């Protein structure tokens, strides 16, 4: 009788141990699953817009010359998605190249004119402000054009070069000679003509 009770108790104990072992395995697997979910959620939080290798390859612009009407120029809002927008951007860049040359030559002429006329505007702070403003605008155009050329898009590159070349061709002779020296030459020529007559 006692042996039956002992055998029954031992079987019950084995059954309990077996159930606890199964529960432990299930809890550990659930814990591992939760950890994996936690890691994936953390990865999503740290990299919410992480693209795959294929898409990231197309997001970086090429470091060799290429031709495309779809470009992002300097700012995220300046994008060309069709031929019309692309040609409009080329015209703007061409005009910016001409403006860059004009500002560079105009600054030199203005400095020469200030020297000939005795110092430029008064007070002196106004002269420094004009000089600094023109320099800031000129440098901004120059470096902006350089960054556009570094996009390595053929049309945009030649728009930069074409604008600079056209600016040199149009403005070099017009802005080379200060107005005061030209006036002196014209005045001297008039006096010489009268003297000879």
Automatic annotation (TrEMBL):
What range does the record give for the signal peptide?
A: 1-21
Which keywords appear in this protein's UniProt record, sorted alphabetically?
Answer: Copper, Copper transport, Ion transport, Membrane, Signal, Transmembrane, Transmembrane helix, Transport
Q: Name one GO cellular component term.
A: membrane
* Locations listed in the record: Membrane
- Segments of skewed composition (Basic and acidic residues): 31-56
Show the segment(s) annotated as Disordered: 24-61, 177-197
- InterPro entries given for it? Cop_transporter
**Pfam families attached here?**
Ctr
- The portions of this protein that span the membrane are 86-106
Would you identify the family this protein belongs to, as annotated? Belongs to the copper transporter (Ctr) (TC 1.A.56) family. SLC31A subfamily.
What the entry lists under PANTHER family is as follows: COPPER TRANSPORT PROTEIN, SOLUTE CARRIER FAMILY 31 COPPER TRANSPORTERS
Q: What is the protein's given name?
A: Copper transport protein
Gene source species: Vitrella brassicaformis (strain CCMP3155)
């Amino acid at each position: 009788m006692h042996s039956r009770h002992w055998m029954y108790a031992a079987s019950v104990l084995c059954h309990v141990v077996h159930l606890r072992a199964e529960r432990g395995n299930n809890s550990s697997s659930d814990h591992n699953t939760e950890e994996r979910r936690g890691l994936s959620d953390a990865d999503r939080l740290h990299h919410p817009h992480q693209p795959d290798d294929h898409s990231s390859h197309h997001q970086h612009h090429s470091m060799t010359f290429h031709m495309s009407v779809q470009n992002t120029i300097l700012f995220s809002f300046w994008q060309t998605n069709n031929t019309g927008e692309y040609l409009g951007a080329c015209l703007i860049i061409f005009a910016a190249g001409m403006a860059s040359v004009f500002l560079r030559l105009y600054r030199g002429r203005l400095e020469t004119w200030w020297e000939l006329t005795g110092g430029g505007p008064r007070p002196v702070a106004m002269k420094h402000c004009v000089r600094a403003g023109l320099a800031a605008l000129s440098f901004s155009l120059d470096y902006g054009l350089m960054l556009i050329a570094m996009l390595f898009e053929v049309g945009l590159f030649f728009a930069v070069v074409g604008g600079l070349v056209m600016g040199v061709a149009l403005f070099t002779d017009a802005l080379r000679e200060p107005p005061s020296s030209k006036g002196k030459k014209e005045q001297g020529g008039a006096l010489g003509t009268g003297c000879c007559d």
